[in-house]
């Protein structure tokens, strides 16, 4: 039997599959998130050292890829076969598009001569991916391979980052003939932001004037601060000019939440026992608000009711369409990092006496809020008996997190818990799937984060509903040696759905309750350590064991099924416990 082997050569010619692999190598690609297909490309990549991270299902592969991008600012590659495998990329690409993270999807396509003949698993990929990608093209001829690979990366990483899809016709990628490599293509486009732009200087000057003269300004930082790597610039403005900073969920980590001028995460979860609940008046009394990399979406603005109508708004964003989408703003269209650098210079050219004179009062208000929150939480964090509440569990997790830990959440209530009850310190990294906020992202995102930072520890919180979508990827963790700690909130319900329906309709649909699953057995079936926690006194030992392990661990947290998160509309369901 012939063994297909791809090798580098110095002839200036090679197969089309190897040309694709060499192009990916030029763009810094280290991994393919894939499941064999297209096999010629995967094998060629393997032969030059690009490793396949073989997922169990395509959707999980895209989730891994996005988290990898979030942790490295490099553009990941996900691969899939045509037809049903391609359709399973849609959810992950949609999340990446809304969250503004780049992915290049290489999708096998039927041979060009077989188009529109009902070839096996033929589907119109151009229509399929139209709503979930920035760009979708098919390589038209072998002569353009390097051109189209480059276009896919440039488009993904430029402007507002997002996913691109490149279709690879089967007859091109399986052709065993050798063709000239386009050696004019030498640049690498594998990182983002690819091209940083800066806002109009005259508008930056006006923004600095508004902020320096405002009575009660604050900065509301979104995920764009993180993706632009503008944390240092934001923190410098916070400290030097005494301006308090709040964050969205995806912006968590942009500033240190122990800083005396950090408001914390705000939005729809400022209900009972929310970490920033007592600072709602500060937010609503603001007269100037600087939005940075912030989509002003429904959850981040509590259905557009949280931010004051009469405030002046300044909006920094790489996407001009986002500026003023929901709040008419002074438009600072540009990269967050460069524009904040420019803003800092302009603020330095102005008097900061007003800001400095108000600092003590602002710090006192924030400190009082934190003390009130601690009082709100006292009965829970000191609880020693009864059903386990997630806040009580995270209180113990917090003690074991390092300042450079990577903390991941699934969507829905898991994101609310992590945003409110784990602290952003120094450069601790937080990952949330809040572009579209679908269930099932948690574990795969934790895996992608670990691949990106193999020297760092990764903790992931998921619900039992979302975990059920992707627990097959535990086998991937075992097979590839990907080490993460996953805590599963095992309460036998679709929590957010059940609580929201109860508030809105006074009843809930039957899927909101489901059978209890012993997730330790699922983990053990995959060769992963499982730890079941049923009592409060078992929490700390379980965390210690999990965090000290050199392999992946699943903590099965049997918890209270009436554990209401601090979402304002759910306050009526809260008890005093």
From TrEMBL:
InterPro entries: DHS-like_NAD/FAD-binding_dom, THDP-binding, Thiamin_PyroP_enz_cen_dom, Thiamin_PyroP_enz_TPP-bd_dom, TPP_enz, TPP_enzyme_TPP-bd. Residues 205-343 form the Thiamine pyrophosphate enzyme central domain. It holds the Pfam family TPP_enzyme_C. CDD domains: TPP_enzymes (cd00568), TPP_PYR_POX_like (cd07035). Keywords: Thiamine pyrophosphate. Residues 413-556 form the Thiamine pyrophosphate enzyme TPP-binding domain. Residues 19-128 form the Thiamine pyrophosphate enzyme N-terminal TPP-binding domain. NCBIfam families: PRK06112.1. Belongs to the TPP enzyme family. This is Acetolactate synthase catalytic subunit.
């Amino acid at each position: 039997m012939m063994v297909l082997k791809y090798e580098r050569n110095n002839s200036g010619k090679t197969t089309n599959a190897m040309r694709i692999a060499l192009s990916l190598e030029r763009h810094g690609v280290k991994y393919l998130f894939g499941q064999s297909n297209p096999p010629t490309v995967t094998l060629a990549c393997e032969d030059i050292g690009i490793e396949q991270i073989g997922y169990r299902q395509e959707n999980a592969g895209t989730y891994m890829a996005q988290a990898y991008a979030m942790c490295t600012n490099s553009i990941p590659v996900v691969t899939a076969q045509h037809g049903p495998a391609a359709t399973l990329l849609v959810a992950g690409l949609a999340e990446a598009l809304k969250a503004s993270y780049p992915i290049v999807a290489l999708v096998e396509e039927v041979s060009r001569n077989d188009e529109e003949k009902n070839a096996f698993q033929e589907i119109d990929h151009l229509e399929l991916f139209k709503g979930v990608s920035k760009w979708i093209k098919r390589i038209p001829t072998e002569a353009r391979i390097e051109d189209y690979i480059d276009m896919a990366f440039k488009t993904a990483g430029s402007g507002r980052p997002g996913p691109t899809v490149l279709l690879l016709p089967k007859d091109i990628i399986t052709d065993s003939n050798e063709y000239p490599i386009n050696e004019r293509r030498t640049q690498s486009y594998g990182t983002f932001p690819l091209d940083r732009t800066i806002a109009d200087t005259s508008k930056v000057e006006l923004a600095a004037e508004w902020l320096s003269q405002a009575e009660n300004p604050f900065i509301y930082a979104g995920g764009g601060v993180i993706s632009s790597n503008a944390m240092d610039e934001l923190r410098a403005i916070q400290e030097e000019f005494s301006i308090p900073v709040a964050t969205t969920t995806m912006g968590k980590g942009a500033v240190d939440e122990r800083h005396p001028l950090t408001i914390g995460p705000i939005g729809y979860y400022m209900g009972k026992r929310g970490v920033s609940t007592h600072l709602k008046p500060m937010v609503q009394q603001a007269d100037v608000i600087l939005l940075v990399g912030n989509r002003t979406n429904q959850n981040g603005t509590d259905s557009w009711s949280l931010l004051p109508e009469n405030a002046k708004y300044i909006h920094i964003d790489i996407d001009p369409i986002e500026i003023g989408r929901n709040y008419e703003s002074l438009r600072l269209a540009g990269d967050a990092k460069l524009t904040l650098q420019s803003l800092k210079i302009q603020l330095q050219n102005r008097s900061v006496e007003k800001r400095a004179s108000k600092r003590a009062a602002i710090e006192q208000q924030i400190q009082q809020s934190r003390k009130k929150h601690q009082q709100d939480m006292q009965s829970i964090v000191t609880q020693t008996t009864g059903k386990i509440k997630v806040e009580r569990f995270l209180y113990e997790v917090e003690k074991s997190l390092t300042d450079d830990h990577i903390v991941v959440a699934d969507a829905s209530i898991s994101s609310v818990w992590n945003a409110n009850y784990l602290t952003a310190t120094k450069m601790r990294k937080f990952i949330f799937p809040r572009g579209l906020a679908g269930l099932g992202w948690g574990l795969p995102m934790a895996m992608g984060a670990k691949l990106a930072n193999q020297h760092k520890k990764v903790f992931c919180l998921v619900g039992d509903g979302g975990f059920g979508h992707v627990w097959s990827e535990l086998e991937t963790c075992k097979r590839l040696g990907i080490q993460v700690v996953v805590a599963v909130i095992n309460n036998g319900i679709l929590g957010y759905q059940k609580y929201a329906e109860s508030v809105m309709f006074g009843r809930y649909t039957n899927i909101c309750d489901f059978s209890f699953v012993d997730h330790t057995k699922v983990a053990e079936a995959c060769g992963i350590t499982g730890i079941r926690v049923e009592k409060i006194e078992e929490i700390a030992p379980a965390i210690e064991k999990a965090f000290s392990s050199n392999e992946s661990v699943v903590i099965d947290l049997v918890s209270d099924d009436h554990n209401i998160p601090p979402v304002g509309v759910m306050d009526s369901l809260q008890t005093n416990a």
